[in-house]
Design a protein that fits this description.
By secondary structure, the chain is an alpha+beta fold. It is 20% helix and 33% strand. It has an eight-stranded mixed β-sheet. Strands 6-7-3-14 form a four-stranded antiparallel β-sheet, with no helix packed on it. Helix 1 runs antiparallel to helix 3.
C-alpha cells in the first residue's frame, strides 16, 4: 500500500470512530483534504518515476555508431550531470584501423610459413616493403551544437602525413563527407553537405599537412557528421587518438587490428573512463591470384579501446559542489593514445609534430 492510501485510511477511520473529529470537520471538507493529499502524493510518485526514467534514458543514450542518420535519443540529448551546461558535445568519435596485405606478403607466408618476430628480417630479403602492406583508416565523428556560442566547435583540424620527399609515398585522404543535420520549424530533419570550398590546407613541417575544416551556418541544435578515410603505405606507424577534447565526449573508440608479425608498444591511457582489451584475430590476404590457397589468413592482434562520458581537462565536477572538501575537484587529464613500432629492423617513421594530434576539435 502506498503512503497516501495509508493516510486516507487513517482519516476514514477517524471519521467512523471519533465523534469529535466528525464535529470539527464536515464530510465535504474531509473529502477535499483527502483529494489534496492524494494529489500531492501522486505528484511525488510521478517525480520518482520521472527520475528513474531519466536514469534509464541516460544509460540508453550512448550514441548510435551507425552514421548517416542521428537517432531520436541524440536529437533529445542535451548532456549529462557534469556536462549539462556544455556549449557543444561530441556524441561519437571513432577510428577503425585494418591492414591490407598484398600478394607478396601472402606468397611469402604460403611458401615459408607465417611471418613472425623470428623471421622478420626476411622482409628485405623477400622484397616485403612498405608498398606490400597498406593501412586503411576509417574516421567518424558526430558533434551536436547545444548553444549558439558552441558553433565554433563544428570546425576541426585533420593532420596527416604528406611529405615533401618525392622518394616517399604519402598518405592518401579520401571520401571526405561532412553533413549538417538540422530541424526546421515543423520539426522535420533537413540535411546539407559542406562544400570542399570550406577546407584549407596548411603545411605543418616537411612531413605533415593540416586540413582546416570550417563548417558554416551552424546553429544550436544542429548535429554535424564527419567521415573520411586514409590509406597509408606506412605499416610501422599508427595515428594517435585523443579521447579527451575541449568539449565533453559521450563516446570515443579505437578499433585496431594489426598483423601479429608487427609488434607495437601501445600507450593506452590509464584512466577509469577508458577501457581497453586485446584478442587474437585473423586477417585475410588481399589477392586474386589463382595459385594462392583460398581463405589464406594471418593471425592478428585486435585492440579495442573505448572511452565514455569524458569531460574536458580541468572542468569542475558539479557532483562535488556540495562537499566542502571536494569543491576544487576537476576532471583530470587523459593522455593521448600513441603507439611505437618495436619490431626489429624496421625504421622508425616520421612521427607527428609535437603538440599535434591527428583529429582535433576547434
Amino acid at each position: 500500500m502506498c503512503h497516501f492510501s495509508v493516510i486516507c485510511s487513517t482519516f476514514a477511520f477517524g471519521f467512523r470512530t471519533n465523534s469529535k473529529f466528525v464535529d470539527s470537520i464536515s464530510i465535504t471538507e474531509l473529502f477535499i483534504l483527502k483529494q489534496k493529499i492524494m494529489n500531492a502524493s501522486f505528484r511525488k510518485l510521478l517525480l520518482l518515476v520521472a527520475l528513474f526514467a531519466c536514469a534509464s534514458m541516460a544509460n540508453a543514450q550512448l550514441p548510435n555508431e551507425k552514421f548517416g542518420k542521428p537517432s531520436n535519443q541524440e536529437w533529445d540529448f542535451v548532456g549529462w550531470g557534469d556536462a549539462i551546461d556544455a556549449d557543444a558535445i561530441i556524441l561519437c568519435k571513432t577510428m577503425k584501423v585494418t591492414y591490407q596485405l598484398s600478394d607478396q606478403v601472402a606468397n611469402f607466408n604460403q611458401s615459408d610459413g607465417a611471418i613472425s618476430i623470428d623471421n622478420i628480417d626476411d622482409f628485405s630479403k623477400n622484397n616485403i616493403d612498405d608498398s606490400n602492406i597498406l593501412i586503411n583508416y576509417e574516421f567518424r565523428l558526430r558533434t551536436k551544437i547545444l548553444k549558439p556560442e558552441g558553433a565554433k566547435h563544428a570546425n576541426i583540424d585533420i593532420t596527416y602525413f604528406c611529405t615533401n620527399d618525392k622518394k616517399l609515398t604519402t598518405d592518401e585522404l579520401a571520401d571526405m563527407k561532412i553533413k549538417v543535420f538540422s530541424k526546421n520549424e515543423k520539426g522535420k530533419v533537413e540535411k546539407r553537405n559542406v562544400s570542399t570550398a570550406n577546407f584549407a590546407k596548411e603545411r605543418v613541417d616537411n612531413n605533415y599537412m593540416v586540413i582546416h575544416v570550417v563548417v558554416p551556418d551552424v546553429k544550436a541544435g544542429d548535429i554535424i557528421e564527419y567521415q573520411y578515410n586514409i590509406t597509408s603505405p606506412r605499416p610501422h606507424f599508427l595515428y594517435d587518438w585523443a579521447f579527451q577534447e575541449c568539449i565533453p565526449t559521450v563516446r570515443s573508440k579505437c578499433d585496431i587490428e594489426i598483423p601479429s608479425f608487427l609488434q607495437f608498444h601501445m600507450n593506452v591511457p590509464v584512466n577509469k573512463l577508458v577501457k581497453s582489451s586485446v584478442e587474437a584475430g585473423r586477417l585475410a590476404y588481399d589477392t586474386n591470384r589463382a595459385d594462392m590457397k583460398k581463405g589464406k589468413t594471418c593471425i592478428t592482434n585486435h585492440y579495442y579501446i573505448v572511452g565514455d562520458y569524458i569531460l574536458p581537462e580541468g572542468q569542475a565536477l558539479k557532483r562535488n559542489l556540495g562537499n566542502a572538501d571536494d569543491k576544487n575537484e576537476t576532471a583530470e587529464q587523459i593522455a593521448v593514445f600513441t603507439s611505437q613500432i618495436t619490431t626489429a629492423n624496421i625504421p622508425q617513421p616520421a612521427y607527428m609534430p609535437k603538440g599535434c594530434t591527428h583529429l582535433k576539435i576547434k
